[in-house]
Amino acid sequence: TQQLLSEPSLEAPRARPCRVSTADRRVRKGIMAHSLEDLVHKVQDVLMLANKPFSLVLEEDGTIVDTEEYFQALADDTVFMVLQKGQKWQPPSKKGSRYQL
Amino acid sequence: TQQLLSEPSLEAPRARPCRVSTADRRVRKGIMAHSLEDLVHKVQDVLMLANKPFSLVLEEDGTIVDTEEYFQALADDTVFMVLQKGQKWQPPSKKGSRYQL
Fold this sequence. Notes:
- The structure is a homodimer.
- Chain A has two helices and four strands.
- The first copy, chain A, is of the alpha+beta class.
- In chain A, strands 2-1-4-3 form a four-stranded mixed β-sheet, covered by helices on one side.
- In chain A, strand 1 (about 15-20) and strand 2 (about 30-35) form a beta hairpin.
- The interface of A and B includes residues 65, 69, 73 and 88 of A.
């Protein structure tokens, strides 16, 4: 399959690098995604969340990302956090280590 | 009174990413908006505030944003706060966690 770069890539926006963290900030993974929908599917696979509802928020401040257009406006390498049912965004620990609970 | 811009940048300024917080800072959502009017409409939908009066202020210091031109001068990813009737802006808790009540 050949990729034409000069060609205006209509339907598919270019894949962008995303970083996805678990709610406890213990695991962070790099994932390429063309769209929010694509990212959601990949997160389901990678974190084995099939059939478990979850939402994606910005790791930095808990902003909910649930529209394609907002996703597209984010910078490359934005860090997302996966929140499953009952999980809440919390600010990173002030103590320096992100691995301290 | 007519506004003459050098270049007719037509009706739609580019959509900009905004973050919108509830007054208690428990929910923050990413919303794309072309204008203050657009943002107000989207906030009504997203936070289900139809027919409930509210105002938008800056989350950082409670500055009221109620003119289109001031909105357009704000940076991308400015954080707004929705204040409904009886709600007042309050500074973030000093205790570190925004979820502490």
